[in-house]
């Protein structure tokens, strides 16, 4: 299964290698910039130009949580390997670590001077990696909200 998002405001799952659409999700009001499966495979997260991050339940075929807090478009999102946290990267020059259980932002990572274009967790760690339009890459300890 392949997961995509696009300018049509939709995310789609595709059967591979046939290329048939298995499921489509709608709810964002602007382009879908990022999408990632939860490690358990039962949910996914999407990010969008509409400044939101959304959690989708595949069995319910719908959005179960909308996370708000970025002031500009969200460029990327990623699940932590434990499945309890989601990271987002935004054009507002910040990244956020979201606690899915409590449905709130746990940490805001500040330090880039321009749009944060990507975020990823190093596997099985509390370290996040961000890249920015300011031509820098940062490693973060998300427990202390500090750059490494």
TrEMBL record:
The keyword Iron-sulfur does not apply. It comes from Chaetorhynchus papuensis (pygmy drongo). One of its GO terms (biological process) is axoneme assembly. The gene is Spag16. It comes from the Eukaryota. WD repeats lie at residues 25-66, 67-108, 109-148. InterPro entries: WD-F-box_domain-protein, WD40/YVTN_repeat-like_dom_sf, WD40_PAC1, WD40_repeat_CS, WD40_repeat_dom_sf, WD40_rpt. This is SPG16 protein. Keywords: Repeat, WD repeat. GO terms for cellular component: axonemal central apparatus. It holds the Pfam family WD40.
